[in-house]
Amino acid sequence: MLFRFGSAILLAVAVSLIGIALEKESLELKRRVSRQHYQLDVLVDVHAKMKLATQQAGSPGQVLNSIERGELDVQSTQRPSSTNRREMPLLQWHLNRSSKVVEK
């Protein structure tokens, strides 16, 4: 009889200790998630500030002012005015292939 009573109390204590351990683990995971949400909010704010600064720095008025003050060097790039059909073999292949399919 005493053995059964002792076993029941021991079992109840073991179950409660396991429950406490699980609750601690759950709270630790909730803290981590909360911390990650906070870090995400901070990163989103920093990203928004950087994007705004980039847009302000690249605005036409700002660029022209920087060029006038001599802070930016202007370099012209030479680009061909028209594209050569020989430079696009894959596109030409698709065009030739579609014309053969239409002819059949």
Q: Explain this structure to me?
A:
By secondary structure, the chain is mostly helical. It has a domain at 30-71. It is 78% helix and 0% strand. It has helices at 2-57, 60-69, 89-103. The radius of gyration is 35 Å and the shape is rod-shaped. The chain starts with a helix and ends with a helix. The mean pLDDT is 81. Residues 74-83 have a biased composition (Polar residues). Residues 69-89 are annotated as: Disordered.
Return residue spans where pLDDT drops below 50 for at least 5 consecutive residues: none
How would you spell out the order of helices and strands? Answer: HHH
Radius of gyration: 35 Å
Helical residue percent band = over 70%
Biggest beta sheet summary: none
Shape: rod-shaped
SS content category: mainly alpha
- The percent range for strand residues is under 5%
- In whole angstroms, the N-to-C terminal distance is 97 Å
Please state the average pLDDT score: 81
What is the number of helical segments per DSSP (H or I, 4+ residues)?
Answer: 3
Summary of the model, kept short:
This protein is mainly α.
Which helices and strands occur, and which strands form pairs?
Layout: H1 2-57, H2 60-69, H3 89-103
Region (Disordered): 69-89
Biased composition (Polar residues): 74-83
Keywords:
104 residues; 78% helix; rod-shaped
